[in-house]
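Re-run with default settings, no changes from the original entry. Doing this only to confirm the output is reproducible before filing.
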Amino acid sequence: MKMMIRHFLLFKSFAMVVLIYAQNQTEFISLDCGLPEGLSYSDSSTGINYTSDMPYIQTGISHRVPGFNSGIQQQALEYVRSFPEGDRNCYMLNLTRGDKYLVRASFMYGNYDAKNEAPQFDLNFGTDLWATMVFQNESAVIVKEIIHVLQSNYLHICLVNIGKGIPFMSALELRLLPNFTYYTQSATESLELLLRNDFGSTSHSTFRFPQDIYDRIWQPYQRNDLGQISTNSSITTNSDYSPPLLAMKTASTPANASQPLNFSVQDSDSTAQFYFYMHVAELEELQANEFREFEITINDKPWFYNYTPKYLLADTLNFIILGKGQLSMIRTSTSSHPPILNALEAYKVKELVQRQTIEEDVYAVMNLKSLYGLKRNWQGDPCLPQEYSWEGLNCSYEVSSPPWIRSLAHEIRNLSSSGLNGEIPHYIVNLTQLVFLDLSNNNLNGEVPAFLGDLQSLTLLNLERNALHGSVPAALIEKSNGGLLQLK
């Protein structure tokens, strides 16, 4: 197994730019699901600006959680959006391919429907299953978080009805991260949060933005076998990950100074991979004859030798554990002080392997839906998962390439007799692999556009019973006469 460690110097000017952008929330998307359209607010504890989710979803019903207590509960949990209709309902966010995001979805049932029965449903990340949502009680809050590099210019987050109650969501948040952080070995690997701990916390409370510029949520961590140290001095950073200074000002060391600092991780899947990020800074001003030095082992095998943290300088060490493992920070024989750990993050690799439909096809049919005001439940990826492919479309599935839309087909209820009016839109030409196009029995007007002749794979074009006028383009007539196109 390849072990990796990467250290970068974060220049002050760059850090200041990152800090300004993060504190201004220009790279935050914070949706309060179910918040009535047009409303927004600034969270009283974090200052994060939340807006209604309405611009990102076309379905669902807004509910206010009864008995919501704003004094002890996060404001974003006051409303939910439920999805009583359709097997799959999806949020669509237009983003930028290649960007890296922390994506966080939050859920609190709160007996919003007065049924006293929390549902069970699937949460999909794009075309892949992210998690099955199971609630222990009505007030349980579940937060799912994943770090993902976008493979297209949009992202679908979908809720899937599996026959065990109505899906819902409380909040959806996205935080843009620098691409040089949380690196993985493959484009299909995303990182699902396992833990994010603040060691030696003196406040014993959870914190996030604005103390963390990327709005990572940190949990206080303490064990009986760990001691606690802290400082009031300023901390600077030598880490790309910008660990929050609030976490770096406290740390844990073994209560028994001769003992190692140990952690373990295990999973029922022996092939599971875990990424760990150790954030370390020396908090004690040691004398000339004192120093802190330790080695790090994984499953008793040396991984990093003779590491000495720098005084008041935050650094990050990262590594991979496969399947299960024991992580140990062991004091060297010449060290005068035991190991130290300020903060720790761990993520499990989540393989998102299903391909998405060709992006041009997705935008083409979404534009058709918007232009003509189609009421079909066209949400999420048009072709995948196959059991949720869009009604009225036929997709082609090949092992060597992503799925693509083969037809707006007459074999299924389609765009025929859909009440379409206006001219035939140019968007259709983006469906480059389209084989069948049935637009019959509508109120389309204008001329038959010449760009339909550019659809090289088209073998059937049905424009009957519309208000079209003018001559049929020569390219279409030529294909029809040559037996390449059935023209109606």
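Residues 1-22, 409-414 have pLDDT under 50 and may be disordered. Residues 359-372 form the longest helix (14 residues).
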